[in-house]
Design goal:
alpha/beta, Nucleotidyltransferase, domain 5, 8-stranded mixed β-sheet
């Protein structure tokens, strides 16, 4: 069975065509900087020269149209879609129909940056491949093991009972992959591990994982909570929302957009949400770019510390996601000063690329880089459901 996996992020789109019987990637690609100047599409497949298209993609629908042009008449038996928010309605993968799409639209308010992109990807595939099964795999599903003491907010209980306001958590497919892959790398049973999984990209989250199950995670009711991210503010005093509305004469919709799309390292730097741009500017002496990087790393470090307390200890700190995988500087900045738990990076290993253990040989806490493989997890879930 050939499964096309579509993984739309807030400013990116990744896809893989996978022969699941062989667990072989037949074709793959990614579109970066969607909605940002300098968009690029990179595509590769077996026995073919790679394709690079430098073209500004205004939205995910335009990007998907170009992906279909490149894939041509490739055989596709099903499509697995990464969907960010399933609320409490979707606790496992489902076959997409009109009713499901209608439900996804209702959940759009909970994750506006991602859900619009997710739905656009689903609809583009339905339009291009009518009759081909579409499966939605939800980012929130892996976090269903979080205990009530961790997912409830300190507001009247009726807000949860009547309106389902609670911590849901996101990037579940990525954290699930890390939880399964780390024990394989270390060649030990997952039941023996306490893992802090750091998914750092344009959207970022951290999960505390014990015995293969999530006990807490940084994103909350929506992906806006938690770390400072590419364009999201992360944790703030909720009273700031009212103050912004009054002082800047914004509607609630404009304020939420401001916090989701204009904040984070983009807002702090006044320059970009892309860390490559920030590091280049910081090296050139831009103080705001340096501050944005410092704020991001400090917030990651602080969450790691809090999850060590929640877990009672930690065996592994794992880095995954575009920033965490590709930036040795970020990993070094986050873990500098963590000697008190004997978590130290081996500089030479940290400078290399790929899946590997990068902790110093005598460090008690293992530090592991795990390249994200959400696509294979989504393909397997799609096959399991069908």
């Amino acid at each position: 069975m050939n499964i096309l996996v579509v993984n739309t992020g807030s400013s990116s789109l990744k896809y893989q065509l996978i022969d699941l019987e062989k667990e072989q990637v037949l074709a793959q690609g990614r579109v970066e900087r969607i909605g940002i100047s300098g968009s690029v599409l990179l595509h590769s497949q077996e026995n073919c020269k790679g394709i690079r298209i430098n073209q500004d993609f205004t939205d995910h629908t335009a990007a998907m149209e170009t992906v279909f042009e490149i894939l041509g008449d490739a055989s596709i038996d099903a499509v697995g879609h990464r969907i960010v928010h399933g609320g409490e309605e979707f606790k496992e993968a489902v076959l997409v129909d009109k009713k499901v799409i209608d439900s996804l639209r209702k959940l759009e308010v909970l994750a506006p940056l991602h859900m619009r992109a997710n739905i656009a990807g689903v609809e583009a595939c339905i339009q291009h491949m009518p009759g081909v099964p579409m499966v939605a795999v939800f980012d929130t599903a892996f976090h269903q093991t979080i205990p009530k003491k961790a997912f409830l907010y300190g507001i009247p209980l009726e807000a949860y009972q009547k309106h389902k306001i609670r911590r849901y958590g996101f990037h579940g497919t990525s954290h699930r992959y890390v939880a399964g892959r780390v024990p394989e790398i270390m060649k030990i049973d997952k039941e023996d591990l306490k893992i802090i999984s750091c998914h750092l990209g344009n959207g970022s989250s951290i999960a505390a994982i014990q015995n293969g199950k999530v006990i807490d995670t940084s994103m909350g009711f929506t992906p806006l909570e938690g770390l400072v991210m590419g364009t999201r503010c992360g944790d703030i005093d909720p009273a700031i929302i009212q103050y912004l509305m009054q002082s800047m004469d914004m509607t609630i919709e404009e304020t939420i957009h401001y916090l989701n799309a204009c904040s984070g390292v983009l807002g702090l730097s006044g320059l970009s949400s892309d860390f490559r741009d920030l590091f280049a500017a910081s090296s050139a002496g831009n103080p705001d770019a340096k501050t944005a990087i410092d704020v991001f790393c400090y917030r990651v470090k602080k969450y790691i510390g809090s999850y060590i307390a929640a877990l009672g200890n930690v065996d592994v700190i794992a880095f995954t996601g575009g920033i965490a995988e590709n930036s040795p500087e970020i990993r070094d900045m986050v873990l500098t000063g963590m000697d008190f738990i004997n978590a130290r990076i081996d500089k030479e290993s940290n400078a290399r690329r790929g899946e590997r253990i990068i902790s110093a040989p005598d460090a008690k806490v293992k530090i592991i880089v795990v390249p994200a493989n959400e696509e294979m997890m989504i393909a397997k879930e799609t096959y399991r459901l069908l």
